[in-house]
Design goal:
heterodimer, A: 347 residues, 15 helices, globular, B: two-stranded antiparallel sheet, 74% helix
């Protein structure tokens, strides 16, 4: 029995799931996720659905920020562009979900590229500020272009339909969103086994060096913005169809910060970390809500403070993560795996 | 015609007043950036903290305004130094994004704590300044606006003198210029970092108190912290004089844009104009009017 994992062929080295254990655990996990709606409450299905949507958006942000090194705090606005595009296409032009969704994705990619242009001249802190501006400009446009977006009243979006089957309950939506989340994870993981993905990583590690070895910064930085925004657009579009109503309030800078927190808590430049981060950041406020409601009997008017308590919990968690575990949940996961890999003979 | 000119001048003057507060906050922001290379997203919360503490001291403890003002500065100083010591110091040497995220998280925490302690409804300062507007060349200026403008200018001048002549100010400038040189000169860099945060907190809370006296205090005050970005980009991220000029320019610009474009675009232009300007600025002159151009070598 080998005392470690040794590859003697490139094919085995390139595999995503390298050991039989990884593959079998994945199967078990897959079966669990598939059967989940049958034994949990509607509320948990709802939370899981939002997790699926956030996974799509967060993987987009991690491709841009974690893998390509272009920090963006305007991701929430790009999600909004996707949501509004598909909502307008569905309500005004009567397009079906299956056509409106990809169009929304591509349109958001275009907008993302436009706001990615400053990244060609500035980087690091300056780019952060440029994407912050993108957030505010897009938000303003959505609120004030009233005959297209209905302003702050928002748009009602009908449920998607496939051959007469309406996705109109949480459980029906579950499998649709699961498919999108799996597709996002799989495509996100596979981008980085291609030429484009490796170019992204080279740009992140040292963009001048990357340019010297022949990677066109112009092309790849804009491409990173486009791909990232495409994911954001799809996530926004799904969100619109799932919640049936979209208002500008959902897509403020708070959403952008949530997305950033997800990939940072999860682990920058890690797809599996993104999934962990999304789960963590989505469940945290739900747990805090439940916890505060339990305390309600002791402290009377705690419900008025609920948003403050959520904010406090969120902020403290992120600060603790950044100080004590800067590599995020992905690193914890790696350590756990490394421990069990050769257990009990780890020496 | 005269109506047009006085409309313009009125907007210009209001812009100057708002701009003076922007300049103060931007000054605090640049101070932190220059000496510690941290982009501080919690600047608006420092401002809000100052405003609320001053209000609590004045209203709840019945301390005369001028004393509560000075006490607030002391508290802000302590808060700034404390934040640097506990939260920002472990982040030295971490990547840009981690440091940005920790200041964002810090802003969330501070805003939530303020909300828990003081609630969400708007509070107003007891009237300290007369509300009778002053007539000046056919324009109306509230007394508080005049105070705010002159006070901001005094602060800016004081800090200018501080950086030019005091040994602490000199040490801060050396640290900003080159940390290694500062270290060899026997300057305690960690102390300088703490000092930068403390002074920045003081400057912001002065801005917060002035703003609180004009508009009342609520959670929206924290948005000022984000408005500061256009100012510092315009002036150059690492230039103190740039922050002040940028603050005034953005204040004037947003009021002019609001005054002239609101009727055409239907409201709210004031809030978005600085950011549009910011993007344009980043595309044509990314390092601002006074900023140091970064030349990167492999």
């Amino acid at each position: 029995m080998p005392c470690g994992l040794f590859h003697n062929r490139y094919r085995t080295d390139e595999r995503i799931f390298q050991t039989i254990w990884a593959r079998s655990w994945l199967t078990v996990f897959g079966l669990f996720v598939l059967s989940m709606p049958f034994f949990v409450t509607d509320y948990i299905v709802y939370v899981t659905n939002t997790i699926f949507i956030f996974i799509v958006g967060a993987i987009g942000l991690n491709i841009l920020t974690g893998f390509t090194g272009q920090i963006s705090i305007g991701h929430g606005a790009f999600v909004a562009v996707g949501a509004y595009t598909s909502a307008i296409l569905t309500t005004k032009l009567g397009l079906s979900f299956w056509i409106a969704l990809p169009i929304a994705g591509f349109f958001t990619a275009l907008i993302g590229m436009i706001f990615g242009i400053p990244s060609l001249r500035v980087k690091g802190l300056y780019l952060v500020i440029a994407t912050l501006a993108a957030q505010f400009i897009i938000e303003y446009t959505i609120i004030h272009w009233e005959n297209l977006t209905n302003g702050i009243t928002g748009i009602f979006v009908p449920s998607p339909e496939l051959f007469g089957f309406f996705f109109n309950t949480d459980k029906k939506f579950y499998y649709l969103l699961l498919a999108f989340a799996v597709a996002a994870v799989a495509s996100g993981r596979n981008i980085f086994r291609t030429r484009v993905g490796r170019a992204f990583i080279a740009v992140r590690d040292r963009d001048i060096a990357a340019e010297i070895v022949g990677i066109s910064l112009f092309k790849y930085k804009l491409l990173a913005f486009a791909i990232s925004s495409f994911y954001a657009g799809v996530a926004g579009s799904l969100w619109g169809y799932y919640t049936n109503v979209i208002t500008p309030e959902h897509f403020t800078i708070v959403l952008s910060i949530d997305y950033l927190a997800m990939i940072i808590v999860g682990g920058l430049g890690s797809i599996i970390g993104t999934v962990f981060g999304v789960i963590f950041i989505t469940i945290l406020p739900e747990l805090l809500t439940t916890f505060s409601l339990l305390l309600k009997s002791t402290f009377g008017q705690i419900t008025t403070l609920l948003s403050a308590i959520k904010g406090l919990g969120f902020g403290v968690t992120v600060i603790l993560f950044l100080i004590f575990e800067p590599e995020g949940l992905a690193e914890i996961w790696r350590r756990i795996r490394a421990y069990w890999k050769l257990w009990p003979f780890s020496y | 015609m005269t109506g047009n000119i006085s409309f313009f001048l009125q907007l210009f003057l209001t812009g100057m007043v708002v701009g003076s507060i922007y300049a103060l906050v931007a000054l605090g922001f640049v101070l932190i950036y220059k000496s510690t290379s941290i982009l501080n997203f919690a600047q608006g919360e420092l401002l809000m903290f100052g405003a609320y503490v001053c209000l609590a001291l004045t209203v709840e403890l019945n301390i005369p305004f001028i004393w509560s003002f000075l006490l607030t500065l002391f508290f802000s100083f302590a808060l700034g130094a404390l934040l640097e010591r506990t939260i920002l110091r472990p982040m030295i040497g971490e990547s840009i994004i981690s440091v940005i995220m920790i200041t964002i998280a810090l802003s969330t925490v501070m805003r939530s704590l303020i909300q828990i302690v003081w609630g969400t409804e708007t509070k107003v300062f007891p009237p300290t300044f007369s509300e009778e507007p002053i007539h000046f060349l056919g324009l109306f200026i509230a007394e508080i606006h005049l105070y705010s403008l002159s006070f901001a200018l005094i602060c800016v001048a004081l800090f200018g003198l501080f950086f030019k002549f005091s040994s602490a100010g000199l040490a801060m400038r050396v640290t900003a210029f080159d940390q290694q040189i500062a270290h060899t000169m026997g300057i305690n860099i960690k102390r300088i970092f703490a000092l930068a945060w403390a002074i920045s907190a003081i400057v912001s809370s002065i801005g917060g108190i002035i703003l609180g006296n004009i508009n009342g205090i609520n959670n929206l005050l924290a948005h000022m912290g984000l408005k500061v970005f256009p100012c510092v980009i315009l002036g150059g991220l690492d230039s103190i004089i740039g922050a002040i000029v940028g603050g005034f320019l953005i204040g004037i610009l947003e009021n002019l844009a609001g005054g002239y474009l609101d009727p055409i675009l239907g409201g709210g232009v004031k809030d978005v104009a600085p950011y549009v300007f910011l993007v344009v600025m980043l595309m044509i002159k990314p390092y601002g009017l006074f900023g140091k151009v970064l030349i990167e070598r492999l």
